[in-house]
TrEMBL record:
Taxonomic lineage: Bacteria, Pseudomonadati, Pseudomonadota, Gammaproteobacteria, Pseudomonadales
Name of the featured protein: Serine/threonine protein kinase
Species in which this protein is naturally found: Pseudomonas fildesensis
Domain of life: Bacteria
Gene Ontology MF annotations: amino acid transmembrane transporter activity; protein serine/threonine kinase activity; symporter activity
GO cellular component terms attached to this protein's record: plasma membrane
Catalytic activity: L-serine(in) + H(+)(in) = L-serine(out) + H(+)(out)
Membrane-spanning parts: 29-47, 53-75, 96-122, 142-160, 172-190, 210-233, 254-273, 301-323, 344-367, 373-391, 403-424
Entry keyword set: Amino-acid transport, Cell inner membrane, Cell membrane, Kinase, Membrane, Serine/threonine-protein kinase, Symport, Transferase, Transmembrane, Transmembrane helix, Transport
Length: 425
């Protein structure tokens, strides 16, 4: 197996694109990663982070980049450690065996699929609120509205992975401009908001408790693990033995972009809205953009904010569909069945459609789903599994002894224990 891996590296080492030049494909992936991460989680982050108070928010802001970059770099390296062309489910089986591979594939699917459900609910709420409050028309029955929206997104999915990534990267440009515009627009409306809690210095135990429960939401808000497997496979195909170096460059730029943009937006929102208003947005199960649209009397914001939210959620849905479908297909194949590729794609799309539609119609609490389903399960795959592989897998031994490994492991454990506490309470 090692000889085969070495031959692959040697073969690719003679043909990959040079690392000295940044290509258009690299930019496309950078924006695709950004687009996958920035969605419903980001649009709900100001609500949950703002409710925690000023000092916990500042600490979370300082943790955002290292927490995001080191974790996703570890998962990318894990996928790259496998045989050429192997996705994450194949690499798990290669390193840990068939039984462990089936278990991790199951966890991988259940780490990502709930996010599709969250986006389905958020998208339906955003469009329904926009029709009611901005267009002043009665939205169609929730079941019909959610069905139409999900079918529209699945139509894009049918065009293939490369089309999805390109569509997401194209949508990122106007989204970045719009999010930046909205954050700047809010500056004259800053009324202190969260600054009213600056003088309230929490006790060490209270601060740790707030951070402990907020970490899963932060993990979810900056998460783009569903697209990492496809990203790593493409980097291996493009750069061969240099894939680790180039993928780290792409990840660092993508994470810097998303952290700067998101934190500026978050602070602008929490300086504009009072803690009571943030609590009201949480109770209404709306994203911060939809709440701002209903809060301001400005027609531009009233129309722009929900549209920005729609684009953000739609592109994140597309990115997470790649990971969820990959996990579901892996589960089907590990049962021993080998349906034709087209039939497997159709079965996957049908399953996603039916379940997403049912959940979007039922409209459960989005923040509750993030806290109990999204962040903690993702943490197991994104934070802990690559760190365990670094300790146990010879192919990843070269990454041992780094301080970032301890940090990533600690964040993962915090997220998982927060889940257990939330479920018990």
């Amino acid at each position: 197996m090692n000889d085969q891996a070495n031959s692959v590296d040697e073969r690719y080492a003679t043909t990959p694109a040079t690392l000295s030049s940044w290509s258009r494909q690299d930019t496309t992936w950078m924006l695709g990663l950004f687009g996958t991460a920035i969605g419903a989680g980001t649009l709900f982050l100001p609500i949950n982070a703002g409710l925690g108070g000023f000092w916990p928010l500042v600490i979370l802001a300082l943790l955002a980049f290292p927490m995001t970059f080191f974790a996703h770099r570890g998962l990318t390296r894990f996928v790259l450690s496998g045989r050429e062309g192997s996705d994450i489910t194949d690499v798990v089986e290669e390193h840990f065996g068939i039984k462990a591979g089936a278990l991790i594939t199951l966890l991988y699917f259940f780490a990502i699929f709930p996010i599709l459900l969250i986006y389905s609910v958020a998208l339906t709420n955003t469009v329904g609120s926009f029709m009611e409050h901005q267009l002043h028309i009665m939205p169609p029955p929730r079941a019909l509205l959610s069905l139409v929206l999900i079918l529209g997104l699945l139509a894009v999915v049918r065009c293939g992975e490369q089309v999805i990534v390109k569509a997401m990267s194209l949508m990122v440009y106007p989204f970045i401009v719009a999010l930046l515009f909205l954050a700047v627009y809010l500056i004259p409306h800053w009324n202190g908001g969260i600054l009213s809690t600056v003088s309230v210095v929490p006790t060490p135990s209270a601060l740790l408790s707030t951070l402990w429960l907020a970490i899963p939401v932060m993990v979810f808000s900056f998460n783009h693990s569903p697209i990492i497997s496809a990203f790593a496979v493409d980097q291996r195909r493009q750069y061969g033995a240099h894939a680790d170096e180039r993928s780290s460059q792409i990840l660092s730029r993508a994470h810097l972009l998303m952290v700067v943009m998101v934190l500026f937006f978050v602070f602008s929102c929490v300086l504009t809205l009072s803690p009571a208003q943030l609590a009201e947005a949480k109770a209404q199960n709306l994203s911060i953009l939809s709440y701002l649209a209903n809060h301001f009397d400005n027609p531009t914001i009233a129309f722009a904010a929900p549209l920005i939210a729609f684009v953000a959620i739609a592109k994140s849905f597309l990115g997470h569909y790649i990971g969820a479908s990959e996990g579901l297909k892996g589960l089907v194949l590990k049962t021993g069945r080998r349906p034709a590729a087209k039939n497997l794609d159709r079965m996957t799309a049908a399953f996603m459609l039916v379940v997403c539609w049912i959940v979007a119609t039922l409209n459960p609490s989005i923040l509750r789903m993030i806290e109990t389903l999204g962040g903690p399960i993702i943490a197991s795959i994104l934070f802990l599994m690559p760190m365990y592989a670094i300790r146990k897998v010879p192919a990843m031994a070269k990454y041992r002894g780094q301080a970032s490994n301890v940090f990533v492991t600690a964040v993962g454990l915090v997220a998982i224990t927060a889940l257990i506490y939330s479920l018990l309470s």
